[in-house]
């Protein structure tokens, strides 16, 4: 049995246990493979095992892999910070943009989507840790932002995404997940609209995220092993 298959079996076991602890069903949770720096061959091995939701943090890496990986079942998400001048490079390739965090990005997305008479599903990124180095809206500002985005016909708000604080204490990340769940609750109350997706939890903390309501977990190391770059390569630490 290959390393990736073994890792996926172990992942499923841990997901199942988290579901039992939280009274949830396995089908409520989507597994997104964070494939930063992972080779096409290793990605395809996971796809053939039934894991076809792929997330990339870097635009150029998304573009290259999109051109080289063609199975029809593969669905691409962009999960990194997206610069407005790179919007043109991801549109037409992704089904979900998980990191909408500012109005200038909304405007550029709308401008380009309108030209093509297209729409795009998005998640609003929320800074739940309070760290200045993290991208995302302050939780208290989310509903005002939603109100503006709802006027944009090219974008469909499907929910929210966050990056929890990195900590060896699982309670620290769990607090971030609770904040995002509360953001979702307040948005539903104010707009009488369901924003069903909560993208939260990575390899180090996905079990706590599932227990706090995650519908999408973003795992890379758990499936593909340690990568060769530091976290800062994927999650910029300065704005």
Count of helical regions: 9
Global outline = globular
DSSP summary, beta strand count: 8
| Radius of gyration from CA coordinates | 17 Å
Query: Any low-confidence stretches, pLDDT <50, length ≥5?
Result: 230-239
Task: Supply the number of structural domains.
Answer: 1
Q: What's the CATH architecture? A: Alpha-Beta Barrel
What class do helices, strands and sheet pairing give? alpha/beta
CATH superfamily: Alanine racemase
Biggest sheet details? 8 strands, parallel
Strand line-up of the largest beta sheet? 7-6-5-4-3-2-1-8
- Report helical residue fraction: 40-55%
User: In CATH's first tier, which class applies?
Assistant: Alpha Beta
Output the CATH topology: TIM Barrel
Strand content range: 15-25%
N-end to C-end Cα span: 43 Å
Order of helices and strands: HEHEHEHEHEHEHEHEH
Mean pLDDT: 94
